[in-house]
Amino acid sequence: MQRLVNKRVLLGVSGGIAAYKSAELVRRLKDAGAEVRVVMTRGAREFITPLTLQALSGNPVHGDLLDPNAEAAMGHIELARWADLILVAPTTADLMARLAQGRGDDLLTTLVLATDAELALAPAMNQAMWRDPATQANLQLLLERGFKVFGPAAGEQACGDIGPGRMLEPADIAARAADCFSYGALSGVHVLINAGPTREAIDPVRYISNHSSGKMGFALAEAAVEAGARVTLVAGPVTLPTPGRVTRVDVVSAEEMLSACEQALPADIFIASAAVADYRPARVAESKLKKDPASGEGFTLSMVRNPDILATLASHPQRPWCVGFAAETDRLLEYASDKLQRKNLDLIIANDVSQPGIGFNSDENAVTLIDRALQQHHLPCASKQKLARQIIAHIASRFSGHSE
Ligand code: C5P
After folding, report:
1. pLDDT tens, 233-245?
2. Is 289 a domain residue?
3. E strands of 170-299, at which residues?
4. Fewest C-beta in 10 Å: which of 35, 189, 202, 309?
């Protein structure tokens, strides 16, 4: 079921007595880590209230194609793009017929037409309706078009008949929904990433910081989500949008960043991409510091060491598998290997910041990954997005090797 972690499931509910089981299905999908939105047909609303499914899914329920308020919040095309899987449970005989005809006469059928997501149906109807040649012909057509069809089961029906047409149980449907997705390299793994600079206050209006943009860490967060991980991103002050499905915690100073990272534990993997300020002013002035008009003298600021976040987590009782970055201008591999050993890391990502156009604050980077056995793996210059995917693939293979 870990295949459902981070997956976006749009649950369509149509109007049959089995609609009451949709409530349990929403819970099962959410328990398996999926994000769930519900679309109800008009018939479905006669059997179960939108309020129930809204409360269980944690999202507003979608109903009408021509509702201006709903369109303003999340339009139907946006909703069709949002989904990784559209699962219709229960699917009535009438809905199967409308889907087979390719109709778009309500929100649910329109979404099915408009989406590129996987499509799955869990039929539920009277056994005679299921056996009817028209329904069977619709079923064949839908299967040929790539719809997955879960069930139906056979047995006693709400109307008293016995035969095929009962909707599968919610746990079974959720398990089959999970089968629609392949395992990501980090399925079910909690990845903690920190990113961006930290700001160390001098007084209420001034601070010390650096030029880190956070781009590499944000790209890593996105790539880890793609690989199926649950991602917590602790971000210093940056202007980047939060990647989808990532839990973001914003912080300002190194001390705040350390405490946010510790609070995010337990994590399986920690990737320290933040450019943490090594020092902070020994004292933060309560009011704005004034320059002395009488003297042309300079000004001395006393600084103290900040905690090393990576080294702290690498020696934590709940130690994650630790990945650090080493940005160096010279003797790159020597300094990086030294840092790996000194901070007790599992992997270090060395990048040469003396080369123009890569590393700090740029869109591209080239890195060398060094593991505990000091084996090197070079990744040539590429966009930070592409590089992030390669780094995450490398981390996933080393991490799974270590935990076996
Ligand atoms: O020692 P140096 O700053 O070069 O080490 C870089 C690595 O250590 C990076 O992964 C960085 O995020 C981490 N670091 C840290 N806390 C600090 C300084 C660096 O976590 N105070």
Report:
1. 999 999 999 998 9
2. no
3. 190-195, 200-201, 207-208, 230-235, 246-250, 269-272, 279-281
4. 202
Ligand 1 pocket residue status of 338, Cβ below 6 Å: no
Residues 6+ apart with CB under 8 A from 215: 240, 361, 363, 384
Residue 152 lies in a domain: yes
DSSP symbols for 7-34: -EEEEEE-SSGGGGHHHHHHHHHHHTT-
In whole angstroms, give the CA distance from residue 164 to residue 150: 12
- Name the residue of 233, 280, 309, 315 whose CB sits within 8 Å of the most ligand 1 atoms, as the mutation to test its pocket: 309
119: amino acid identity, one letter: L
Collapsed DSSP state (helix, strand, coil) of residue 83: coil
pLDDT tens readout for residues 281-305 = 999 999 999 887 777 788 889 999 9
Q: Give how many domains the chain has, as a whole number.
A: 2
Judged against a pLDDT cut of 60, whether residue 43 lies above it is answered with: yes
Both 95 and 229 in a single domain? no
| Same domain membership, residue 202 and residue 235 | yes
Domain range spanning residue 92?
A: 2-178
Q: What is the dihedral of CA 185, 245, 33, 64, to 10 degrees?
A: -130
- The 3-state DSSP class for residue 305 equals strand
State the distance between the two ends of the chain, measured CA to CA, in whole angstroms.
20
Residue 205 shares a structural domain with residue 155: no
Residue where one domain finishes, among candidates 122, 148, 178:
178
Q: Is 89 in the pocket of ligand 1 (CB under 6 A)?
A: no
Atom of ligand 1 nearest to the CA of 305: 21
Q: How far is the CA of 274 from the centre of ligand 1 (A)?
A: 7
C-alpha distances (whole Å) from 137 to each of 14, 101, 140, 226, 283 are: 20, 11, 5, 38, 78
- How far apart (Å, rounded) are the C-alpha atoms in residues 156 and 79? 36
pTM: 0.79
